[in-house]
Amino acid sequence: MAKMNSTGMPVLCLGEALIDVIERAGEVEEKVGGSPLNVACGLASLGHPTALASWWGDDSRGNRLEAHLLSAGVEIIAGSDHAEKTPIANAHIDSAGRATYDFELDWQVPPLPDATQISHLHTGSFAATLAPGAGAVVAAVKSMAIRGTVSYDPNVRPSLMGTPEEVRPQIEEIISLADVVKASDEDIAWLYGEGVPLESVLHKWKSMGPGLVIATRGPWGSYALCANDRDMLVVDSLNIEVADTVGAGDSFMAGLISGLLDAGLLGSGAAKARLRQARLGDVQPALHRATITSGLTVSKVGAYSPTRSEVAEVLTADPTL
User: What region, left, alpha or beta, does residue 163 occupy, with left being phi > 0 and alpha being psi -120 to 50 degrees?
Assistant: First the structure.
């Protein structure tokens, strides 16, 4: 496997980095979190030059975020620490293990590098829809879509996004600009209704412009559609003992971007064109890498970021993956 995208320019992840304040059975603990942060750490762990643009405070929690990112090998875009205070997500875990969230945050975007200075832009979650920063995120997506490639994970947060009817136009605008879109079955059910088939939503998204659309289905694997292929690919999940599912979707996204970069299907205007012509067989290795990284993450406690050597070990043990 090649080590990184051939341009040598970084992938830019744009979105929230925050502290999860987790309350479970009367105990409270704090952990570094945020979907774009997790994707950035996952890509860096897989050997890709990666930067994160976010919005946190110059305080003790912000210092913890910075230390986590730097230890993972992620470059921090200057100005990301200019928030009044570091955002937190209060997670309340019930007896069945289900989490409900409320957030204390302000979302803005620091000055971003020019699109010519990055190889690929990834964004998602509430950062792409929450004012006032959402406008700058969409502007960055539009700029990158002209010159290179964009990936997007809606990663819905109902407590911040309002109703599905309110936020769906914003989400669909970014889908229409993106090259790769990944969403969970739970996200899709919230956006379009429990009774709407995943397949119909994926076909709708495919018709809006992306080269590759994917729905992850937890233990039931994932569905994938390519713009240039009429069939749908079903990818089984990794058969692995689950410790917890924290960061599973973000790890899947990191593995997917990594595999597509290595395949020359993301990272430049030429790669964008190749992705539009790709068939399912061309993207299958990247989907398998995503499945492996996600599986390795859920085998650990917390949002663990697997390395290339760990991915290689899984492939060695089962070459059919």
Answer: beta
Query: Is residue 125 one of the residues assigned to a domain?
Result: yes
How many domains are contained in the chain? 1
Which CATH number fits the domain that encloses residue 269? Answer: 3.40.1190.20
CA 98 to chain CA mean position, Å = 21
d(CA 211, CA 208): 10
- Ranges of beta strands (E only) in 139-185 are 149-153, 180-184
Q: Can the peptide bond before residue 10 be classed as cis, meaning omega within 30 degrees of 0?
A: no
Domain assignment present for residue 3? The answer is no
Whether the model pTM is above 0.85: yes
Q: Residues near 298 by Cβ (< 8 Å), separated by ≥ 6?
A: 240, 242, 243, 244, 245, 248
Q: Are 49 and 70 in contact (CB under 8 A)?
A: no
**Do residues 51 and 10 make contact, with C-beta atoms less than 8 angstroms apart?**
yes
- Which residues constitute the domain of residue 102? 11-317
pLDDT digits (tens, 9 = 90+) for 193-210: 999 999 999 999 999 999
Tell me how many helices (H) and strands (E) the chain has: 11, 13
